[in-house]
Amino acid sequence: METKVPNKKVRKEPIIVENKEAIEQGITIDLKARKNKIWQWLYFAINILTWIIIVFILSAALSMYISNKKTGLPAVFGLVIVQIASGSMVDAGFEVGSHALIRQVSFDSLEVGDYIAFRYFVTAGASAPGDVSPTHKPLQEAPRGTKIIFHEIKEIITDVNGQRWFITKGTNNAAEDPFPIYENYVIGRHVDISRTAENFLSFIFSPIGTMVVVTLPATLIMGFDIYTVIIVGVELRENKRKKKSDEREKI
To answer: What pLDDT does residue 171 have?
Structure first.
């Protein structure tokens, strides 16, 4: 006796025909989209960086202007770069021609052993703490053209008016400086950072350094804009060529 097996419907899977050209085109479009996205983020980052630099330079310029008006010394956010002109501090690591970063601080915070920058000025008749009185005081501001010295504090003396005087000495000198320094003539205290950092800051605050800091981001943005224009032009030309090719194939 024969048994009949019921016919089962065989599910036919859809036949997928891969279009190699379409796949390649899709991959190309995806890569271009990713590339464009990367360039957009890069352009955005460069713009932000440029504006940060511009705002910083404008703020620094304003700070220098105000400081120069008040003290005759251009300071950026309370920081001054001084160049070492003699070998009096060689033992402390300050070679002739090197730079020292000085921070403007309150006179009360200065201590023996601090390295300070000051205007070396002496008021006639009030050149030492013992010469002053409540009615006889040193000139409150040193003339702006006064020589700037960078030495170590060896001793601090307070006069009858409660104001401080600093006995100073170059670490490489045999003797102390001839006259004590009145507190108002002190510019600030040395900030202990690496020599490389001091030289870098000195370059940044120089006219050439400022120009480099401003022009570099601007050059990058300009270069990116030129690159974008070129890429857009190339793509438009390719699209036109492809369009003409497609029209010819249809004919």
So the answer is: 94
How many helices (H) and strands (E) the chain has is answered by 3, 7
State the Cα–Cα distance between residues 202 and 53, nearest whole angstrom. Answer: 17
Q: What is the mean pLDDT of each run of 10 residues along the chain (251 residues)?
A: 55 53 53 67 76 77 76 78 88 86 90 94 89 89 86 95 95 94 94 74 70 71 74 76 71 61
* Residue whose entry in the numeric block shows the structure tokens 């004590």: 180
Report d(CA 70, CA 102) in Å as an integer. 17
Is the Cβ–Cβ distance between 78 and 104 less than 8 Å? yes
Torsion of CA 37, 39, 45, 46, to 10 degrees: -160
DSSP label of 87 = S
Q: How many Å apart are CA 90 and CA 208, to the nearest integer?
A: 28
User: What is the DSSP code string of 123-171?
Assistant: BTTBSSGGG-BTTB---SS--TTPPEEEEEEEEEEE-TTS-EEEEEE-T
Among candidate residues 187, 68, 219, 34, the one with its CA nearest the CA of residue 118 = 187
Contact predicate 82/117, CB 8 Å? yes
Q: What is this structure's pTM?
A: 0.63
Tokens (6 digits) for 203: 């370059």
Q: Which residues are CB-neighbours of 111 under 8 A, at least 6 positions away? A: 153, 156
The sheet carrying 181-182 orders its strands as 79-83, 99-103, 186-190, 115-119, 148-158, 164-169, 181-182
